[in-house]
Protein: Extracellular solute-binding protein
Organism: Streptomyces xinghaiensis
Amino acid sequence: MRNNLSRRGGRTIAAVTATIVASSVLAACGSSGPEGSGGGDGGTLNVWVYGDASTKVQDEAVKRFNKNSDVKAKLTKVPGDSYQDKLRTAMGTPNAPDVFFNWGGGSIANFVEKDMLVDLTPEFDKDPDLKGAFIDTIVDAGKVNDKYYGVPMRGMQPVILFYNKNVFEKADAEPPQSWEDMLALVDTFKEEGVTPFALAGADAWPELMWVEYLLDRNGGAEVFQRIQDGDSEAWGDPAVLKTAEQIKELVDRGAFGKNFASVNYTEDGASTLFAKDRAAMHLMGSWEYANQKANQPKFAEDGIGWTSFPALPDGKGDPKNVVGNPTNYWSINAKAKEQEAALEFVKTAAEDAYVKDLVGNGDVPTTSDAEERLKAHDAPQYAEFQYEMVKAAPAFTLSWDQALPSQQAEPMLTNIQKLFNGQLSPKDFVEAMKGL
């Protein structure tokens, strides 16, 4: 993060509040909503977070905040498997949170449409140090209708092409730098009796990662941006058909083996194939390293390698572009009674102590100047690779199933799974997507 932001924690809450009161975002929403709204009452800030092992970072943030604020934050940890359902049910009721964790994009689009969230754009414009504290593409990935509704609050989660060093060494092979390399490696590893790419095809979301990267490399990030903006005709872009044809080519060539449709991720199926030298590569989110470290520590220590998804021939997309989950965000309920405190709380995600806790938790922060911090990461080389890849990316496309509203995301995932399973031809796939 920037040096001037690292001093943000030293500013008094009173001084910050004085500037916030004048902010147009608060003038628009008001600093006190209807009695009992937003979950805040009598100087309390109700903060909801997705309940998992990473909440210890937010626990510490709440403790620091409460030491310096008359308004006390209360952290509610909602079980992960029910988080989104409980949030949708609570919003608009007296039990709604004042500040809450989300994925940006489609995960909050319905709330934005109903004017339920604070538009943070005026605050970002007024406080360039706040926006500048984070990598631009990360902040932008959380936008809805070209406005900011979230402050990044967890680590980055790009999709990475992992490879098995042992298998590559045995085959005297190198990680792919081009589409031609990928196809050649498919043939190489098939001859070795190794599945070229592990794929958990029992679920659609691991297959989605392939479609996301191929479309990005073929047509650029702009194609899906049009789709996300509501242009259904963008599914008819030639890059979508080319992507579907490449998926069929990979499947027909044996890139994922014969039984990928029955392999899962949640029970560690694909990851185990990869770690046990039965698969050469695995396209997966950055959490794959932590997963291997927990379940296959020896492989994580010396057997796993990582690289970027390669460029494609005649592709319009920048090969530095990244897809995945840029991060998670704090958003503010427009009816929160303690809006000044809510805004000050979400800003703590830019503070030095918060970033230090993220690194200590094994995360790679999304702040713009985190390089020095990464030396303390438990896997510094891996962390630095992720950080530099994301920082250099002209665009970071949010996972489509998070970027699109659920009524579009679910049938989209079904269509992708049918494409991989041969139940839809590339042309039929395009028509099905245009009909979403």
